[in-house]
Design a protein that fits this description.
Strands 1, 2, 10, 11, 12, 13, 16, 17, 18, 19, 20 and 21 form a twelve-stranded antiparallel beta sheet that branches. A four-stranded antiparallel beta sheet has the order 5-4-7-8, with no helix packed on it. A three-stranded mixed beta sheet has the order 6-3-9, with no helix packed on it. Helices cover 7% and strands 45% of the residues.
Length: 295
C-alpha cells in the first residue's frame, strides 16, 4: 500500500519501485542526465515542449498569433490561444510574440519573455492581452486548464515538477485532449498523460481569469517510466486528476491531485494527494482554469 506523508503526498513503497525497475530493460542512469539525453535525442516528443497561452483577462483568445523561440522556431496559436514549440534540451529560452499577428485592437506588453526549461515538465507561459479586443468576453462553456510548477521540497529540490494543458473534448487537439507531464524527482519517475478527458467543471467563480468555476476533474491514459528511460515506451497507465484554481498566483493556494495506475495490474505507481477532496497545495507555479465558447 502507498504511504502518505504528513504533507498529503503519497510516497512510493520500495517494493513497487523495485518491481518496475526490474521491468525496465534499459540500464539505470542518472535521472537528470537521462532526461536531458532523451530530450536532446527527440525521443520525448511531447515532454520537452514549451506551451504559450495568450488571452485576455476575460479568457478571450485568438487563433493565428505567431509565437517564436529564439534559435528554435515558431508556431501559431490555436483557437484556445495555445502555441506549442518543441525545444532541443534543458536551457533558458527567449519567447517572442510577433506583434503584427495580434488581432485588431489587442495589445501585449512586453512582447518577449524568458523561460527556463529544467526538466520534462515545463510550465505553461501565460501572456495577458489588453486593449479594446478584450472588451467583450466569450460566452461561458466547457472548462479547461493550463498549469505548471512544483510540489514539496526535499534538501532544496522539488519532490515533483508538473506542467501541461487539459483541453475540453471539443478542442481542435481532441485526439489527445491535451498533455500532462509529472516528474517525481525523489524516485526518478516520469508520468506522461497523453489522452485526457474532462469529467466535470465545478466550484465557485474566480477573477483570474473571470470564470464561473474553479475545479476541473479529468481522467485519461498515458505512460510511466523509471530512471529516465524513454517515456514513449513506458508502462501503459490510467490516471485520474483534479486541479483547483484558488488564487493568483497559485503558489501555496492552488491544489493538485493525481493518481496513476498500472493499466494491467491497477497497482498505484504515483499518487499526489490523499484524494480528490484532499488535494495538495502546489509550492511554486500556477493552475489556471479557463472557459470556452466550445459547445
Amino acid at each position: 500500500m502507498p504511504v502518505i506523508s504528513s504533507a498529503g503526498v503519497v510516497l512510493k513503497s520500495g517494493d513497487l519501485v523495485n518491481q518496475h525497475k526490474r521491468r525496465s530493460s534499459m540500464k539505470s542512469k542518472a535521472f537528470v542526465s537521462g532526461l536531458l539525453a532523451l530530450c536532446l535525442a527527440g525521443f520525448t516528443a511531447e515532454a520537452c515542449v514549451v506551451q504559450v497561452h495568450i488571452a485576455c483577462p476575460s479568457d478571450q483568445s485568438a487563433a493565428g498569433v505567431e509565437v517564436c523561440i529564439d534559435g528554435v522556431g515558431c508556431a501559431t496559436t490555436d483557437s484556445f490561444g495555445i502555441a506549442q514549440i518543441q525545444v532541443p534540451g534543458f536551457d533558458t529560452y527567449t519567447v517572442r510574440v510577433t506583434g503584427s499577428t495580434l488581432p485588431a485592437g489587442a495589445t501585449l506588453n512586453p512582447l518577449s519573455t524568458k523561460i527556463k526549461v529544467e526538466n520534462d515538465a515545463p510550465p505553461v507561459i501565460e501572456l495577458v492581452l489588453g486593449g479594446s479586443f478584450c472588451s467583450t468576453p466569450p460566452p461561458s462553456g466547457d472548462c479547461w486548464m493550463t498549469g505548471g510548477g512544483t510540489i514539496g521540497k526535499t534538501k532544496g529540490a522539488p519532490n515533483y515538477s508538473f506542467g501541461g494543458v487539459v483541453y475540453p473534448g471539443c478542442s481542435p487537439k481532441a485526439a489527445g485532449g491535451g498533455n500532462l507531464n509529472v516528474v517525481d524527482h525523489s524516485n526518478n519517475m516520469h508520468f506522461k498523460g497523453k489522452d485526457i478527458t474532462v469529467d466535470s467543471c465545478t466550484g465557485v467563480s474566480t477573477k483570474s481569469p473571470k470564470v464561473n468555476v474553479n475545479i476541473i476533474d479529468f481522467h485519461g491514459t498515458g505512460t510511466f517510466s523509471v530512471n529516465g528511460t524513454d517515456s514513449e515506451k513506458g508502462i501503459p497507465v490510467t490516471f485520474v486528476g483534479r486541479a483547483v484554481d484558488n488564487l493568483e498566483s497559485g503558489a501555496g493556494s492552488d491544489l493538485f491531485y493525481l493518481k496513476v495506475l498500472d493499466a494491467t495490474t491497477n497497482a498505484v505507481l504515483m499518487q499526489i494527494g490523499v484524494s480528490k477532496d484532499d488535494a495538495v497545495a502546489i509550492s511554486t507555479g500556477n493552475l489556471q482554469i479557463h472557459t470556452t465558447s466550445c459547445q
